[in-house]
Amino acid sequence: MTSRAVRKPSTRFILERYGDLLPITDRTPMVSLGEGGTPLVRSRSIERELGLKALYFKLESMNPTGSFKDRGMVLAIAKAVEDRAEAVICASTGNTSASAAAYAVRHGLKAYVIVPDGQIAMGKLAQAIVHGATIVQLAGSFDDALNVVREIATRHPVALVNSVNQHRIEGQKTGAFEIVDDLGDAPEILCIPVGNAGNITAYWRGFSEYYRLERAGQRPQMWGFQAAGAAPIVNGAPVEHPETVASAIRIGNPASWQQAVEARDDSGGRIRAVTDEEILEAYRRLAAEEAVFCEPASAASVAGLIRQHREGADLSGKTAVCIITGNGLKDPDTALGIAATIHRAESDLASVERALGWV
């Protein structure tokens, strides 16, 4: 990696820090919940196992509503307000609904969210509920929900804030800017979960724009990972009934499919599939070895990197960044499914010492 002058943050809020690289006008409301500025946490265990020079986890789970969606939503809803929208709508597997509802409240807008019935983690649905969104549980998949909201947005005065809205992609690209500014250059490898494929599209756009502006440094290979039961890009065809424990990427026909393929090809990268077993193993290892508690979909980036190493990818001397897209509390049921070591004791010192095996 080469060194470069970095953009020092006068604030951590992306609309201000990177405003000159975003489609902001004098009429765009500069309203923030504190999104962006998420840390790069260096691996203490997995890095050594894979023979990397360095491995970092980009903790997008530390955004205001607990996921990367806030980067794009802060801009998408600000632009909706600029266009005098009074309501927003989205289809969601969970994180988008939480983010849209929160930013709608911040701007005084009404939020409508359409979610596939029985396919959304309770931690995410709880956020949309508490922020006062109007929720419709659709008897269908996320892809069905997205088709419905796209049609609604053409028939009713509501702003569509899914990642088909390019302001979402523009906001999300700032994650790539931060990585370059924090490391001094892009890593050789960027690992990212792929569901609707907006995030891999956004990160590649961000790295490419920074590369052109700085006229120095490098662009990473984009390594995207889908769940094996929801891997339309890997399989080359839509998946009618996607299934995976990683609900955030349980999508059978990504809206940004072509852009994701372009990001893969232009970067010399790859998009592969990982099994639910591999995702859950990476999920457990991140928590137990790296102190990173993420939702299962986030662990797909780490599961994919580990699998590529096992399949012979040469990682020696390279720096990799894995995007941790969402907080583990988004999906508490998965965490509670892990066997816990719990002992009972009476309310006295000796009893607690015996329970701990100290006497």
Overview of the structural elements:
With 359 residues, the chain is of the alpha/beta class. The chain has two domains: 14-66 and 168-336, Rossmann fold (3-Layer(aba) Sandwich), CATH 3.40.50; 69-165, Rossmann fold, CATH 3.40.50.1100. Helix content is 42%, strand content 14%. It is built from 15 helices and ten strands. The strands form two sheets. It has a six-stranded mixed sheet with strand order 1-2-10-7-8-9, sandwiched between helices. Strand 3, helix 4 (95-107) and strand 4 (110-116) form a beta-alpha-beta unit. The protein is globular.
Shape: globular
End-to-end Cα distance, whole Å, is 53 Å
Q: Helix-strand pattern, N to C?
A: HEHEHEHEHEHEHHEHEHHEHHEHH
Number of domains: 2
Gyration radius (Cα, Å) is: 21 Å
Q: Kindly provide the name of the CATH class of the largest domain.
A: Alpha Beta
CATH architecture of the largest domain: 3-Layer(aba) Sandwich
Secondary structure class reads alpha/beta
- Strand ordering within the main sheet: 1-2-10-7-8-9
Q: Under CATH, the topology of the largest domain is which?
A: Rossmann fold
Number of helices: 15
Helix content: 40-55%
Whole-number mean pLDDT: 93
Note the main sheet.
6 strands, mixed
How much β-strand is present in the residues? Answer: 5-15%
Give a brief outline of the structure.
Helix 5 links the parallel strand 4 and strand 5. The chain has 2 domains: 222 residues, Rossmann fold; 97 residues, Rossmann fold, CATH 3.40.50.1100. The longest helix has 17 residues.
What attributes does this structure have?
alpha/beta, Rossmann fold, globular, 4-stranded parallel sheet, 6-stranded mixed sheet
